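Fig. S4 source data, part A: sequence.
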Amino acid sequence: MALPELRDHQRALAESPNERKVFLYGPAGTGKTTTGIARMLHLLDSGVASRSLLVLVAQRTLSEGYRAALEQPERQAGTQVMVSTLAGLAQRMVDLFWPIVAEEAGFAYPQRPPVFLTAETAQYYMARLVRPLLEAGYFETVVLDRNRIYAQILDYLSKASAVGFPYTEAAARMKQAWSGESSHLRVYDEAQACANRFRRYCLDHNLLDFSLQIEVFRRHLWPLPMCRDYLISTHTHLIIDNVEEEVPVSHDIFLDWLQHCRSALVIADADGGYRGFMGADPHSALRLRDACDEQVTFSESFTTSADLRALAHRFGIAMQRQSEAPEAAISGDPQRALTYAHHRYHPEMLDWVADSVADLVQTQGVPPAQIAVLSPYLPDALRFALADRLARRGIPSRSHRPSRALREEPATRCLLTLSALAHPEWGVCPSRYEVAYALMQAIHGLDLVRAQLLAEIVYRVQDGRPSLSAFEQIQPAMQERVTYVLGARYDHLREALALHAQREHDDGAFDHFLGRLFGETLSQPGFGFQEGYDAGAVTARLIASVRSFRLMASYADEATDPAARRPLGQEYIEMVQEGVLAAQYLHDWWRQPEPAILLAPAHTFLVSNQSVDYQFWLDVGSPSWWDRLNQPLTQAYVLTRQWPSEAVWTEQDETETRDNALYRLVLGLIRRCRRRIYLGLTDLSEHGRDQRGVLVLLLQRILRAGAVEVAR
């Protein structure tokens, strides 16, 4: 990866003396991370041992720039530099010092190794523990999918570890802030009981979810001189990027570390904190400023045009926020930064978006990867409608939704349905529609009508075991309706399922079965995943998830009665059917070899910390741009250090919080756009409701100043 040419002020900071601690602050797009990467390379070039340099980022996706710089052929000596999140560092330290702290931390079997849970496996165990309580009447007043209940109970524990209060106090904090119906208070007590049960189970079986990893590190390892001295003496040069996205407990550790390191570069984005739902606290991050020798501010944008900077300035005025620059310093025209078209109905807006994208790519030569189509949320119907319109215009697209359940991905449903058919001994019997849908996904050219006809004929369930019959056994008239070409592909798929299942029986790894099914069959010519970029990404994520589940199960089998153990694949399919949320894997988001338009929720795009030339904002009139995600079991703003313990959450707090979130969201999007923003406006939403959200009203104030270029 070639670094952009550095400006003088960037080079001066990157090449400053090695014994310097700097707090670097400024808006997104001002070259702070580029300076951080240059600083890392300068330290290596100046003789700093790679082992003594530690780069900490708020989430794995933000580490890509640093890793790419270290992977250059001429930088092989720097590949030993540790680039990690604090959670990743905590896991390494727990694993390293486990025999010393396990008993003190309360684990039942300190002589056995720890088992680290992913987001998925944590939900799996949570489901096992909470499911009986749900059947007994817990959360009966909450209208929420079970997977969301599990995730919000885990959030109780995560927020406590991130903020630094005892997890047993979470319900009390929520109840104190609640101002609604008193009957809802019971829900918090039930969530606390589930959290307590889960934590007790983890301690009894050496299981560490995210919250327990952080808590063991903070309470037992960091105060331990052996561990603390090891880290401080090993990593004497720190680079901490996007510190505003870190949690307060991380800031506590960084503050201590900064007192002992030789050099440090702490980087913070102005108006950041997009991961607030995970405990990010930009106010707490500013404490690190006083622990550094010098504070430096970058204000010149390398990304946005003068017109977009003027748009950000006007938006701040519309929201009654103090501008970062005087009016005279804003030379651009916000009208030139926007293109919009007004439509009566939602499908008309989607057609306009697809036509505009096609014009940019096919007429103006814009690379597809430089276009992002964003909306507050990205439901299946919207994603399909956009992807289909783009595909019909010859435009490739990809999408990413880290909060999406595994079962909601078409590729996942196809793979797991085929897996159930390949393993009739599991007794997992898909519906006839699920089989038809899987065949349609798996066989190229098989439409839904013929897929349903084929499934009606070949799929049977006998004695609780599913089976598929051969195409040659079908009556000739039906064979002709399906066509012999598609029938041959079906037979090949059927035989491949049996072969892959037998090979899995030999090695006992369900993830190997999925890998072979994808690599040797579904991705080959004549089958449905050959050109499906999204399907390939989902398959890779699914295989990584199964592998993690398999490794966890191999450690945790001792906690299960042998007579009650079931095949790994069967356990996994049932976990997915329960609605477990997918973990976010790095290759989903970054390692996309194909140039394609990005379809994503606006917030997901923001936390990627990447920029594009063109952005499309869909449903600008939707209230979802301003509304906060409903979380009946938890509340991200109450479970923080900033919230007074005795305060009650009021409507004014709700309005101010939504306004602040909208301001950060819009400002963050503008700062991550280089050329132009397209606004999709409709009178009616996809559900036929009037579109009168806060965002469109604010934009109207800006647009009234002059005419905007209207797309035709």
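Fig. S4 source data, part B ends here. Residues 325-329, 585-593, 707-712 have pLDDT under 50 and may be disordered.
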